[in-house]
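Risk register update: the risk of archive-format incompatibility is retired. Evidence:
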Amino acid sequence: MADGGQGAWSEQAVDHFLRSQRIEARDAALVRWFHAANSKARARAAATSDVHMIEADVVLRGGRGGNGDPIMAHPPETDSDNTLQEWLKEIVNTDKGIKLDFKSLEAVCPSLELLEHVKHRLRRPIWINADILPGPNGSSSVVDAKGFLGTVTSFFPNVTLSLGWTTGWHPDKHHEGYDWVMVKEMAQICCTLPQPVTFAVRAALVRQSVSELCWLIQQSDRYSLTIWTGKEDVYSVEDLLYIRENFDKSRVYYDILEPQNSEFRKAIVAQ
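Archived output:
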């Protein structure tokens, strides 16, 4: 069930889009994202937009423990007007990279079976994401790391793994960042993986974790960070620029929400 050695799958996304002249410099901040393209309307909007990467969430119809088809929804939702099969049919006709986010192990295998049916049409970055460790204020409800990595690599040994920590956010609370125990546990899990790995980290928690996350991505030139945000998170464009100043620009992607996304992109153009 290997992926047939598709070069784009084992290539860093920033290099793929630079090589295909979709971005002008080896700067991962230039890679634009469409987040939560789950419904048919949002998938269609993503397909016709000018983004490079489309992120969407996959669950089994009926939710965790369900045995329905893989559908495009973010928990707590357990139903959708869009199945993964229909979603892939829409997106394969574009030139956009794909990030599929899984919240349960049960959804992974049937989803990868569907992905395998269209892999010959997907010479582009493909990322498979799950939170496999508890992180700052995070729940212990993680996707089993061994099961997730084993399933994904048995189908697609070259696919980019997007691995994160569960996190929590409370606006009126002091937030610790990603600590040494968290990053070293992740490094231990990933040290034998041969494919690209991007670590999904929450924007509001990165500034206080720069030393730890710098150390983590220095463990391999296959590693990168992907900055994401929650709707209620409090963080500033200055925080994003601080991240940008402290990491290799080719190794940090920004899948962030408005208005910070537009403000951040204006700020980096002005630099």
